[in-house]
Please model this.
Amino acid sequence: MEFREIEFFLALCDTHNFTKAAELCHVSQPALTKAIQRLEDKLGNSLIERGHGRFELTDLGRVMHPHFKRIDETRKAAKRAAQAVANKRPEPLDIGVMCTVGPTLISPAFASFQQEHPDIELLLHDVTDATGYELLRAGAIDCAIMGRLAVLDSEFGSVALYSEPMMLTMAEGHPLATKNEINLADINGCAYADRLACEFQTTFFQHLTERNLNVHSVIRSEREEWIQVAVAQGHGVSIMPLYSIVTPGIAARRITDMTVERQVECITVAGRTPSRSLKNLLAFLEAFRWS
Model:
């Protein structure tokens, strides 16, 4: 199958309209339609349910979409690298950063790295615990800054960066902010801002259940900044990694009877020969003094 056919299919998924997809790809609608048909012929089945006035992916279309997405991202990354070499521009390095990993420590490290290596351009991509490893496998990103709990699969390697405790956060004017340390019982019945992307979410609620405690969620979101603003404005308390807290007005306290800490690491694919840029970054991160 051809990259162009995959590009046409992804454009069609984004627009849900053959005419708009053709305009987006700068081709005629018949040309786009024929390309999709060729792709379906190669796969041996339909990708799209065709019907008047509606657009829907078939089971095959839904299965293939994430695979095609990764292929297209890899193609674009390769094209950027080739263009950088041809134009003598800074060499791009694609880095996935887990959405729950805050910039407090990472950003200064990257700034110091680029002072030493001005010929390397860092492209940061927002990833989750699930998508980060998939994008690494596909070659769409060179490495990923991840907070890890489970044992790392043997197909991946890592450079340890720093340890990060989980804290209970609340508005600076919240009654709990007067305490130096918090027990889980202190938050029983509290309004809670639920970070859906948090890798500790299940563990936290298990701790509450084991102690016959509960909180009631007033907002739930995968967006870290939304949760932080809600907490700062006094809408509820929340569990957060210490170095992800960037919103003013938030107080953070340790929970004495629930010690949870994660290791933040730079994850790579084991056995894959790293580029010059990635070698430089890994050596820098390993030697960097995290504080």
Summary: The longest helix spans residues 59-87. The chain has a mean pLDDT of 89. Residues 109 and 288 are 7 Å apart (CA to CA). The chain has three domains: 3-69, 89-163+263-287, 164-262.
